[in-house]
Design goal:
PH-domain like; Rossmann fold; 5 helices; 13 strands
């Protein structure tokens, strides 16, 4: 989930109060004018006098961010990898279930994690579960049993499809005795939703 701020924005000659949303690989502006600027397409990035400034296509853009301007600039110049967003740490035991992604497995291992594929062993620090339709969500209760008490179950689903929706994922997680704590952009086509065991139910 990105950072959002309501502030004063300038796009070209237009100045207005709007909303800026810093996502993983793009910046969104909503208000009198709307803009979607992928980081890779921003030019002349800078942070001066509390404003983030850049050029996008034919427009000069300025967003008033105060002390956060430098932080947003750093996030744009040095975006986090998927593995960093998912909070993977050295020495963790990770399971990939219903996910055929060699690049992800390699990235996890490069972070020092032990990765198993196809099934989840007991006491996993994190399970990444690919769900492409609502029927897949019936597996969440069983996967919960393989989590370490403070482990995380990430449900990775396609965006904007009727076969599986955010509300269905949230309901399935709750039914499995889990609580949702985070949503991140996994890729251009997929979203990852994080579930954990409630503190009161951990042993």
């Amino acid at each position: 989930m990105g950072r959002t701020i309501k502030t004063r924005i300038r796009i070209g000659a237009s100045r207005f109060d709007g909303e800026a949303l810093l996502e993983t690989s793009e910046l969104l502006i909503r208000g009198e004018k709307r803009l979607r600027a992928p980081f890779a397409e921003m030019k002349a990035l800078d942070a001066n006098d509390g404003a983030l400034t850049f050029r996008f296509k034919s427009d000069d853009v300025a967003i008033e961010l105060g002390k956060d301007a430098a932080k947003w600039l750093d996030s744009i110049r040095n975006p986090k990898s998927v593995v960093e967003k998912l909070g993977v740490k050295d020495g963790q035991k990770i399971a990939l279930v219903a996910i055929d992604d060699d690049a992800l497995a390699s990235d996890l291992e490069s972070r020092g994690a032990t990765v198993s594929r196809g099934r989840a062993a007991k006491n996993c620090d994190a399970i990444f579960f690919g769900a492409s339709r609502r029927g897949d969500l019936a597996r969440l209760a069983k996967l919960r049993e393989s989590l370490a008490p403070n482990g995380a179950l990430w449900v990775i689903r396609p965006k904007g499809v009727k076969e599986i929706t955010e509300s269905e994922v949230m309901a399935a997680g709750k039914a499995a005795g889990l609580v949702d704590v985070k949503v991140v952009r996994f890729s251009d086509t997929h979203t990852a939703e994080k579930f954990v065991i409630p503190v009161s139910a951990r042993r």
